[in-house]
Amino acid sequence: MTVEVRTVEAGELNQYADGIREVYARAFAAPPWDEDPAGADRYAERLARDALRPGFTAAVATAGGTVTGFATAWITPEVFPADRSYGQVAEALGPRRTRGWLCGALEVNELAVAPEAHGTGLGAALLHAVTGPVPDGRCWLLTSARAEAALRLYERTGWRRVDAPVPGAAALVVLLGPRHPRRAEAGGRG
After folding, report:
1. 132: three-class secondary structure by DSSP
2. What share of the chain is helix, strand, coil (3-state, %, to 5)?
3. Quick one: angle between helices 148-156 and 122-131, nearest 10?
4. Cβ atoms within 10 Å, residue 27
5. Which is one GO molecular function term here (predicted)?
6. 0.85 cut: is pTM over it?
7. Which of 28, 35, 71, 146 could form a Cys-Cys staple with 39, CB 3.0–4.6 A?
8. What DSSP string runs through 37-60?
9. Taking the chain, what is the end-to-end CA distance rounded to the nearest angstrom?
10. The CATH number of the domain where 66 resides is what?
Protein backbone atom coordinates (compact mmCIF):
# COMPACT_ATOMS: atom_id res chain seq x y z
CA MET A 1 0.00 0.00 0.00
CA THR A 2 1.28 3.46 -0.88
CA VAL A 3 2.00 5.85 1.97
CA GLU A 4 1.39 9.55 1.40
CA VAL A 5 3.15 12.17 3.52
CA ARG A 6 1.78 15.68 3.33
CA THR A 7 1.97 18.86 5.32
CA VAL A 8 -1.33 19.98 6.75
CA GLU A 9 -2.62 23.30 8.01
CA ALA A 10 -3.81 23.66 11.59
CA GLY A 11 -7.41 23.79 10.37
CA GLU A 12 -7.04 20.38 8.68
CA LEU A 13 -5.86 18.56 11.81
CA ASN A 14 -9.34 17.79 13.04
CA GLN A 15 -9.97 15.38 10.15
CA TYR A 16 -6.92 13.37 11.27
CA ALA A 17 -7.49 13.72 15.04
CA ASP A 18 -8.58 10.12 15.74
CA GLY A 19 -5.73 8.66 13.69
CA ILE A 20 -3.15 10.96 15.29
CA ARG A 21 -4.39 9.99 18.74
CA GLU A 22 -4.19 6.29 17.83
CA VAL A 23 -0.64 6.57 16.44
CA TYR A 24 0.44 8.58 19.47
CA ALA A 25 -1.00 5.95 21.84
CA ARG A 26 0.77 3.11 20.06
CA ALA A 27 4.07 4.91 19.40
CA PHE A 28 4.53 6.14 22.96
CA ALA A 29 3.21 3.08 24.86
CA ALA A 30 6.62 1.40 24.87
CA PRO A 31 9.73 2.41 26.84
CA PRO A 32 11.18 4.90 27.42
CA TRP A 33 7.86 6.78 27.20
CA ASP A 34 5.47 4.26 28.80
CA GLU A 35 2.45 6.46 28.09
CA ASP A 36 -0.93 5.08 29.10
CA PRO A 37 -4.02 5.60 26.90
CA ALA A 38 -4.95 8.70 28.91
CA GLY A 39 -1.64 10.24 27.75
CA ALA A 40 -2.86 10.05 24.16
CA ASP A 41 -6.08 11.80 25.18
CA ARG A 42 -4.07 14.56 26.87
CA TYR A 43 -1.89 14.87 23.76
CA ALA A 44 -4.96 15.25 21.53
CA GLU A 45 -6.21 18.07 23.76
CA ARG A 46 -2.78 19.72 23.81
CA LEU A 47 -2.46 19.44 20.02
CA ALA A 48 -5.58 21.57 19.56
CA ARG A 49 -3.89 24.33 21.61
CA ASP A 50 -0.46 23.80 20.04
CA ALA A 51 -1.95 24.29 16.57
CA LEU A 52 -2.58 27.93 17.55
CA ARG A 53 1.13 28.62 18.18
CA PRO A 54 2.97 30.96 15.81
CA GLY A 55 4.67 29.07 12.99
CA PHE A 56 2.81 25.83 13.70
CA THR A 57 3.28 23.19 11.03
CA ALA A 58 2.33 19.53 10.83
CA ALA A 59 2.78 16.57 8.53
CA VAL A 60 0.60 13.48 8.40
CA ALA A 61 1.33 10.12 6.79
CA THR A 62 -1.59 8.04 5.56
CA ALA A 63 -1.92 4.65 3.91
CA GLY A 64 -5.31 3.77 2.51
CA GLY A 65 -6.90 6.55 4.53
CA THR A 66 -5.37 5.38 7.83
CA VAL A 67 -2.92 7.64 9.70
CA THR A 68 0.43 5.86 10.04
CA GLY A 69 2.51 8.73 11.41
CA PHE A 70 2.66 12.45 12.10
CA ALA A 71 5.03 15.25 13.05
CA THR A 72 4.36 18.66 14.57
CA ALA A 73 6.56 21.72 14.98
CA TRP A 74 6.38 25.44 15.71
CA ILE A 75 8.58 28.47 16.11
CA THR A 76 10.15 28.73 19.57
CA PRO A 77 9.23 32.11 21.07
CA GLU A 78 11.88 34.83 21.31
CA VAL A 79 11.32 34.80 25.06
CA PHE A 80 12.26 31.21 25.85
CA PRO A 81 9.47 29.45 27.77
CA ALA A 82 10.01 28.13 31.30
CA ASP A 83 7.24 25.49 31.40
CA ARG A 84 7.45 21.79 30.53
CA SER A 85 11.14 20.91 29.97
CA TYR A 86 12.17 24.33 28.66
CA GLY A 87 13.66 25.48 31.96
CA GLN A 88 15.95 22.45 32.07
CA VAL A 89 17.04 23.05 28.46
CA ALA A 90 17.84 26.70 29.23
CA GLU A 91 19.84 25.64 32.28
CA ALA A 92 21.85 23.15 30.21
CA LEU A 93 22.60 25.51 27.31
CA GLY A 94 22.89 28.78 29.18
CA PRO A 95 21.30 32.06 28.08
CA ARG A 96 23.56 32.84 25.08
CA ARG A 97 23.14 29.47 23.36
CA THR A 98 19.46 29.21 24.26
CA ARG A 99 18.74 32.62 22.74
CA GLY A 100 21.00 32.18 19.71
CA TRP A 101 20.33 28.55 18.88
CA LEU A 102 16.71 27.94 19.87
CA CYS A 103 14.71 31.18 20.14
CA GLY A 104 13.07 31.93 16.80
CA ALA A 105 14.01 28.47 15.46
CA LEU A 106 11.59 25.73 14.39
CA GLU A 107 11.08 23.32 17.27
CA VAL A 108 10.04 19.80 16.35
CA ASN A 109 7.56 18.92 19.08
CA GLU A 110 6.38 15.43 18.19
CA LEU A 111 7.32 12.75 15.70
CA ALA A 112 5.39 9.49 15.90
CA VAL A 113 5.20 6.50 13.58
CA ALA A 114 2.96 3.47 13.97
CA PRO A 115 5.08 0.52 15.18
CA GLU A 116 4.42 -1.54 12.02
CA ALA A 117 5.90 1.30 9.92
CA HIS A 118 9.18 1.52 11.86
CA GLY A 119 12.22 1.09 9.65
CA THR A 120 10.43 2.11 6.44
CA GLY A 121 11.82 5.66 6.18
CA LEU A 122 8.51 7.16 7.26
CA GLY A 123 9.99 8.93 10.29
CA ALA A 124 12.64 10.58 8.13
CA ALA A 125 10.02 11.64 5.58
CA LEU A 126 7.81 13.20 8.26
CA LEU A 127 10.77 14.97 9.84
CA HIS A 128 11.81 16.37 6.47
CA ALA A 129 8.24 17.45 5.70
CA VAL A 130 8.12 19.76 8.73
CA THR A 131 11.76 20.93 8.73
CA GLY A 132 12.75 20.98 5.06
CA PRO A 133 10.98 24.26 4.22
CA VAL A 134 12.79 26.23 6.98
CA PRO A 135 14.83 28.73 4.93
CA ASP A 136 17.64 29.31 7.44
CA GLY A 137 17.83 25.68 8.63
CA ARG A 138 17.36 26.63 12.28
CA CYS A 139 15.56 23.56 13.66
CA TRP A 140 15.89 21.77 16.98
CA LEU A 141 14.23 19.09 19.04
CA LEU A 142 14.32 17.50 22.45
CA THR A 143 14.09 13.78 23.12
CA SER A 144 15.00 11.19 25.70
CA ALA A 145 18.57 9.89 25.73
CA ARG A 146 16.89 6.51 26.34
CA ALA A 147 14.98 6.68 23.01
CA GLU A 148 17.71 4.83 21.14
CA ALA A 149 15.76 4.16 17.94
CA ALA A 150 14.70 7.81 17.71
CA LEU A 151 18.27 8.99 18.30
CA ARG A 152 19.53 6.68 15.55
CA LEU A 153 16.93 8.15 13.17
CA TYR A 154 17.87 11.73 14.04
CA GLU A 155 21.60 11.13 13.73
CA ARG A 156 21.16 9.16 10.48
CA THR A 157 19.29 12.14 9.03
CA GLY A 158 22.01 14.61 10.03
CA TRP A 159 20.82 15.91 13.38
CA ARG A 160 23.53 16.55 15.98
CA ARG A 161 23.31 16.09 19.74
CA VAL A 162 24.23 19.16 21.75
CA ASP A 163 27.05 18.32 24.12
CA ALA A 164 25.29 19.78 27.17
CA PRO A 165 23.41 17.32 29.39
CA VAL A 166 19.91 18.48 30.27
CA PRO A 167 19.46 18.21 34.05
CA GLY A 168 16.68 16.10 35.52
CA ALA A 169 15.59 12.50 35.81
CA ALA A 170 14.11 12.41 32.29
CA ALA A 171 17.59 12.14 30.67
CA LEU A 172 16.76 14.57 27.88
CA VAL A 173 19.00 15.55 25.00
CA VAL A 174 18.81 18.54 22.63
CA LEU A 175 19.53 18.02 18.93
CA LEU A 176 20.16 20.64 16.24
CA GLY A 177 18.96 20.07 12.68
CA PRO A 178 21.28 19.18 9.81
CA ARG A 179 21.26 22.73 8.38
CA HIS A 180 21.28 24.60 11.70
CA PRO A 181 23.96 27.31 11.38
CA ARG A 182 25.31 26.53 14.89
CA ARG A 183 25.37 22.76 14.40
CA ALA A 184 29.19 22.60 14.31
CA GLU A 185 29.34 24.33 17.71
CA ALA A 186 27.05 21.75 19.31
CA GLY A 187 29.76 19.16 19.88
CA GLY A 188 28.17 15.81 20.56
CA ARG A 189 27.39 13.07 18.07
CA GLY A 190 25.71 13.14 14.72
Report:
1. coil
2. 40, 25, 35
3. 60
4. 23
5. acyltransferase activity, transferring groups other than amino-acyl groups
6. yes
7. 35
8. HHHHHHHHHHHHHHTTSTT-EEEE
9. 32
10. 3.40.630.30
